[in-house]
Design goal:
Length: about 140
């Protein structure tokens, strides 16, 4: 029986090129939607967070941002790496404010002399919430 040799020799080249392009875009931007939690879940969690003591509220809001990014498939070993991976998906101001909020969380956790009264904890939490809003994490909320 004769083998069918009707294959195009360029198919392999195009397939390899397609794989390289997909890999490039995977690194450039995470896949998937950021509306990864059940409807109403993020709103509920922020309502709970807003009732917490200042330090704990900031830590919990930061953890919620990290949870959303992880569930959405953002790459990275730390929240900082995952934030860098989504930088192009939000406005510069929102991204910068999220970084500032994350730095406050880091000060709370790592600096035992940090005075929470030196920051407006409501503003820090708002910045994290605004980041999630701009990413589209609240799309399931309506």
């Amino acid at each position: 029986m004769k083998k069918n040799n009707n294959t195009n020799p360029l198919d392999g080249v195009f397939s390899a090129l397609e794989g390289l392009i997909a890999s490039f875009f995977d690194k450039l931007m995470p896949r998937g939607s950021f509306a990864v939690l059940p409807p109403g879940e993020i709103t509920k969690r922020f309502q709970e967070i807003e009732k917490m003591e200042s330090k704990l509220a900031i830590i919990e809001a930061d953890k919620l941002v990290d949870t959303v990014l992880k569930k959405a498939g953002s790459k990275g070993e730390s929240l900082g790496e995952r934030l860098r991976g989504v930088q192009k998906l939000v406005s510069r101001d929102v991204y910068s404010n999220m970084w500032e909020a994350h730095k406050v969380r880091n000060q709370i956790v790592h600096d035992h002399d940090f005075d929470i009264r030196s920051v407006d904890h409501n503003l820090v939490i708002y910045r994290m919430k605004k980041f999630l809003i701009e990413l589209g994490a609240f799309k399931n909320e309506q």
